[in-house]
Amino acid sequence: MFNVIVVKDYQELSQKAFEVVKGVLKEKESPVLGLATGSSPLGLYQAMIDDHKKNQTDYSKVITFNLDEYVGLPREHQESYYTFMHHNLFDHLNIKEEHVHLPSGLGDLEENSKAYEALMANYQIDLQLLGIGSNGHIGFNEPGTPFDSLTHVVTLKESTRKDNARFFEPLKEEVPTHAITMGIQSVLKAKKILLIASGKNKAQAIYNMLKGPVTPEHPASVLQNHPDVIVIVDKEAASLL
Ligand code: F6R
Predict the structure, then answer these.
(1) pTM metric for this prediction
(2) 68 is annotated as an active-site residue
(3) Is 76 a catalytic residue?
(4) Mind listing the pLDDT tens digit for each residue in 103-160?
(5) For residues 34 and 40, is the Cβ–Cβ distance under 8 A?
(6) For residue range 154-187, what is the model confidence (pLDDT) as tens digits?
(7) Which residues contact 23 (CB under 8 A, 6 or more apart)?
(8) What is the number of the ligand 1 atom nearest to the C-alpha of 164?
(9) Domain total for the chain?
(10) CATH number, position 70
(11) 51 C-alpha vs ligand 1 centroid, how far in Å?
(12) Which residues form the domain of 117?
């Protein structure tokens, strides 16, 4: 079931998303957050950092699982999601490194996928944060991914590599061709899901997610089957609704 909130701009989106996160942090002694990378959550992460500084909000018992990681990038690579999460969030909170989890895109990927899923089986994610790809992907579950998928290795679509080229161009590097991602079934296990999207290039994907048929061709449409999904979109992302 969707609760759709349309806001005027990215700043309001980030503030509203922060209120949802804060609610979960307050509710639970040891909350488990599923986190995302990319541009969409940056404002939310900054709001969490500001709040932590101002109000000393405690993250020492917070546990996190990230959705995905590129294959082949060492952790220290500037564009690895490990580095992204540390620079943009974890380094600025009192979260414990041993409570932070990302799938590893190095070494035996089959083994890593199984290990990540096994680790997650010990918890239930209280709140899973999602962005959405312009092609409707969630995590890196590209169109065509079966709904019963668990953590697995994916070949990134050319459109996704193009969307993400902005991060790699300054380094004069190519976007990796593969990633390891939580599967659709892994994502759906979360108690509550918060999906955020801004900008015109997300409008079609948001329309398909909310109003289209539930089909692997539009991976986010599977969220129609989840009991508790909050969608926060700005006017542009909501422009086709
Ligand atoms: C990131 C992720 C992706 C992004 C999506 C949108 O961990 O799993 O699904 O959420 O590609 O990316 P942005 O927010 O950069 O538009």
Answers:
(1) 0.97
(2) yes
(3) no
(4) 999 999 999 999 999 999 999 999 999 999 999 999 999 999 999 999 999 999 999 9
(5) no
(6) 999 999 999 999 999 999 999 999 999 999 999 9
(7) none
(8) 15
(9) 1
(10) 3.40.50.1360
(11) 24
(12) 2-228
